[in-house]
Design goal:
134 residues; alpha+beta; hypothetical protein PF0899 fold; 4-stranded mixed beta sheet; 3-stranded antiparallel beta sheet; 2 helices; flat; metal-binding; zinc; nickel; HypA/HybF; nickel cation binding
Length: 134
């Protein structure tokens, strides 16, 4: 038997599908807490270093949301930059994902402040009380 290589594209799609399903569990829980009958929009922020690929997340969203309150909803994604805090001078700055160096003093002793997260920013729902953003 020869070596079988995993399909990297399929693995990434499965990762994003799992991430999307987890996000939709939160979306549906929030929608139910507000007595919503439909979610029309989901807004998320995805850090550059999060490991989540926005294009793939958008691709799997319709499949993952089928049969949920978010079926047919629009998925809006904001890309969140990488921000570090310098341990030497204390400055927080936005940096390139592959260059976590202080933009003020050039020191490489930095701590990641943001850029590795995925945040559910808001959802827009429809309920008996009308349209709302929560």
């Amino acid at each position: 038997m020869g070596n079988v290589r995993p399909d990297v594209g399929a693995i990434k799609l499965m990762h994003e599908l799992s991430v999307c399903q987890s996000m939709l569990r939160q979306v549906n829980e929030i929608a139910r807490q507000h007595n919503a009958w439909h979610v029309s929009r989901v807004q998320v922020g995805i850090g550059v270093l999060s490991g989540v690929e926005p294009d793939l997340l958008k691709q799997v969203f319709p499949v993952a949301s089928a049969g949920t309150l978010a079926e047919g909803a629009q998925l809006s994604i904001e890309t969140l930059p990488v921000c570090v805090r310098c341990e030497s001078c204390g400055v927080e700055s936005v940096v390139e994902a592959n260059k976590l160096v202080c933009s003020a003093c050039g020191d490489w002793h930095t701590q990641l402040v943001s850029g590795n997260e995925m945040l559910l920013d808001s959802i827009e729902i429809e309920s008996g009380r009308g349209h709302a953003r929560v």
